[in-house]
Amino acid sequence: MGVEQDELLDLALQGALRAGELLLERFEGPARGVSSKSTHTDLVSDADRSSEALLIELITSERPRDGIYAEEGGKGISESGLRWVIDPLDGTINYLFRIPIWSVSIAVEDRHGGLVGVVHDPNRNETFTASRGGGAYLSGAPIKVRDRADPTKALIGTGFSYDSEVRAVQAEVLTRVLPHVRDVRRPGSAALDLAYVACGRLDGFYEHTMEAYDKAAGVLLIQEAGGVVSDLAAPFGLTPGVIVAAPALHEQLSNLVLNKE
User: Number of folded domains in the chain?
Assistant: First the structure.
């Protein structure tokens, strides 16, 4: 990695750890400032907002010329050619229901795509990091996707939309995939799902619609861990999702999801 790339990863890591500490402090207390976003099932809380504010303040104080795209509305035009893509609390529903499966996801992109990425799991004190050309790591140890070729032995992750019409489409796809794989998991934090593919805890993952902040860090993790990432078109013109897996499994998983023979 170059010097700037090292600095970007260090700053992303510092931000993820600090945001994780803030979120953990509030996790056991009463939820505050809860409101809905795209649908009545898509919630946001003061914890999301405070985590994002912390991250934006940290990044802009160190990198005032970089752009920002964050889930809860934080935006800034890039003058440097770099953009920070932030999910300050990935897995808000789990967080609000006191399910300890949620994360902080931070990526930096340039015109070629992901440059560095961090997914931090405060509950397990696990931090996934990646840099373009520099590999992928879990708490400092190198990670690789699992070399699984047989879909019937593959454990697959997925996620579901908050929109009922999209969920109906996803349910139909699930009925195609489930009979042909070992099992399917839906933990509720897409960033962690992607990180789990990168380290071999899951063999693959697919989801039909994902915003950039849901997948930016995780996609880089998988690419640097030797996996394959392809776009998955979303119904109703929504933002595309992804299909990810090890090279030997990716085509077979794609065929199941896309209903190809």
Answer: 2
Asked if 213 and 239 touch (Cβ cutoff 8 Å), the reply is no
Nearest to 120 by CA among 92, 93, 98, 87: 87
The neighbour count for residue 200, using CB atoms within 10 Å, is 18
Residue 232 near residue 255, CB atoms below 8 Å = no
pTM of the model: 0.93
Please tell me whether residues 28 and 104 are part of one structural domain.
yes
**Helix or strand or coil: residue 261?**
coil
Annotate 222-253 with b (16+ C-beta within 10 A) or e (fewer).
bbbbbbbbbebebeeeeeebbbbbbebbbebb
Reduced to 3 states, what is the DSSP secondary structure of residue 16?
A: helix
Rg (CA), the chain: 17
Residue type, 184: V
Q: Which tens digits make up the pLDDT trace of 93-115?
A: 999 999 999 999 999 999 999 99
Inter-residue contact 166 to 208 (CB < 8 Å): yes
